[in-house]
Amino acid sequence: MTSRVAETMSVDTIRGVPRGTATVPLSILELATVGEGGTPAEALGVATELARRAEEWGYHRIWVAEHHGMPGVASSSPAVLIAHLAAATRTIRIGSGGVMLPNHAPLVIAEQFGTLHALHPGRIDLGLGRAPGTDMATANALRRSAEVNPDDFPQQLDELTRFLDGSFPPGHPYGKIQAVPREADRPPIWLLGSSGFSARLAGLLGLPFAFAHHFSAANTEPALELYRSCFQPSAVLAEPYAMIGVAAVAADTEQEALRQAMPGALSWLRLRTGRPGRVPTPEEAGAYPYSPLEMEFVRERLSTVVYGDAERVRAGLDELRERTGADELMITTQVHGGAARLRNYELIAKAYGMP
């Protein structure tokens, strides 16, 4: 594959300008989490309010993630939610973190994000992943085929990019197909990953790379090193640009932050043991009868979460940034209730002296 994937974007559309006064840009990964006792409509309302507040507080971008078949996650349709959040804001970048490309025909994604880019020029990011974001039965229902292979991702990526650019070579079977609307430029493409596959591909194509540290912490530094070592300058970037997703919970006290972080840990435990559900309350998480093995899982999970009061969270984020050399941090917070989620991001913004 050639660097054609990156050909029409500029460095500015990738890097942007940090909107706050943090050392590196701070951004948000939003899942529209549904808490126990709440509804998906309420979760989407909180996501909308968070986008508005994040813009005021100085966050650089907010992305939404594609997940399917998870009662605690309402962000199953990134393009729809991105359109809503972009319409509710004015300046903050909005994007996908990410669209799971193997679940969709590349032409569909080109049309969706071409539309978003036409409606909100200069504010849309297209982050792409190669995992299904769900179990294989649901993935097959999405794709209408069991033959789609994640290893075909480079080919799908090239096809998507050529639809966005209108750049199929003469004689190609899709050469006469137009993805409409299509502007002179297009949204920046990011590759997402939790292992080395997308890290290497992003480096070879000269694309920005976002690594899921929040659920694959042990692989973060090896993946970023692989990305940087493989990086080839492109029309998009002269040098590597790496962002990492970080789980963080800030509260007024360290004890309250731990109390709020426990529901997220219990949610992960239930997900990993085949029992996905809505985010439990702190009371439910505190009263859960953890087995020794389950408690070890929870401790391991919490070890990857930066939690505490605002200054402690800032110190943890700064240490992680310095250790990994990340160019941008994307914070994700899995707590019960919209008020706690909003307070978390407000405290972090204030700790960094953001607007």
From TrEMBL:
One of its GO terms (molecular function) is oxidoreductase activity, acting on paired donors, with incorporation or reduction of molecular oxygen. Residues 32-327 form the Luciferase-like domain. InterPro entries: Bact_Lucif_Oxidored, CmoO-like, Luciferase-like_dom, Luciferase-like_sf. One of its GO terms (cellular component) is cytosol. CDD domains: Flavin_utilizing_monoxygenases. It holds the Pfam family Bac_luciferase. It comes from the Bacteria. PANTHER family: LUCIFERASE-LIKE MONOOXYGENASE (PTHR30137:SF6). To bacterial alkanal monooxygenase alpha and beta chains. This is Luciferase-like domain-containing protein. It comes from Sphaerimonospora thailandensis. The lineage of its organism: Bacteria, Bacillati, Actinomycetota, Actinomycetes, Streptosporangiales.
